[in-house]
Amino acid sequence: MMRYFILILCVCKLQVEAFDWFNRTIRVDLSTNRESLARQDEFLVNSERSLNGVNATNGQYPWSILTVAWSKGPESWIGIPCAGSIISENFALTDIRCTGRESQPGPATVIEAFVGGVLWVSPLPTPKYMRHYWYIEPSAENSPNIVLLQFHERLTYNPNIHAIRLAAPGNFSYEGWASLSLGFNTPVGDFSAQLQFISTSIPNNNACTFAGNLANHEMCAIEADAGDVDGPIRRFNAFSGGAWMTFEYGDVDYHATLVGIHQFQYANATSSLGIATRVSPFVEWVEKLTAEADA
């Protein structure tokens, strides 16, 4: 009897949180005009290197996209490169950092998307554009980092462009599961972005208290290889917005499942870990917004 009572409490808590997230949802409209950028006065930010990443090959993870969020600075346009995950022909998921809302010079007015490749080198080709994005306004209780992006034009699927399935709605922890973390490594120098993957395992959140107590809608992962960073554990910005994925058994075979949206890596000489936003608590939020936008 107690087990069912606890289950009911958990379901009610998730429904209350979801209702609160809908009330705090903000839609941002973006420019889809390439000419709105002063292309001769632009600067792409190079993130710190990813740790222990392995280069992906074409078609290996066809839901992965490179995004560049452009914000107008005092002297030039500043572009923040990130990763995202295609979830349908019209939508993708990423992290709030990938919109520039938490960095200088401020929120992006243009977000470009590059799909169907694993290596992007400057000068970048003609991009896709994002028409809108939705995020959840932070509150004292919680500050989800998940962002829903809408493409300006519907994607056409092929072996290098395809959606990934979302995790089932709820609050399943995936504790003890093996996973992969995907994202783009953008090393210092002439801009390039290489899609990489990292093998990880998902522990209980209590194993990751170095970053403070994680919220219920967050998760951590321990990388298969130890870190190689001298000194105390510190944060790396690489891989932001990328997929955390597992393989789940479907009707006839295993399929890739999106279980998390990458926020940051943390590492020192002995440990290398990641923090992500869980997808499963936000499935209802995503499905409601995509249905309304497609209507």
From TrEMBL:
**Biological-process GO terms, alphabetical:** proteolysis
Q: Quick one: signal sequence residues?
A: 1-18
Matching InterPro entries: Peptidase_S1_PA, Peptidase_S1_PA_chymotrypsin, Ser/Thr_Proteases_Immune/Dev, Trypsin_dom
Q: SUPFAM superfamilies under this entry?
A: Trypsin-like serine proteases
Q: Name one GO molecular function term.
A: serine-type endopeptidase activity
Q: What PROSITE patterns does the annotation carry?
A: TRYPSIN_DOM
Keywords tagged on the record: Disulfide bond, Glycoprotein, Hydrolase, Membrane, Protease, Signal, Transmembrane
- According to its UniProt record, which protein family does this protein belong to? Belongs to the peptidase S1 family. CLIP subfamily.
Q: What is this protein called?
A: Transmembrane protease serine 11B-like protein
Q: Which organism is it from?
A: Pseudolycoriella hygida
Taxonomic lineage: Eukaryota, Metazoa, Ecdysozoa, Arthropoda, Hexapoda
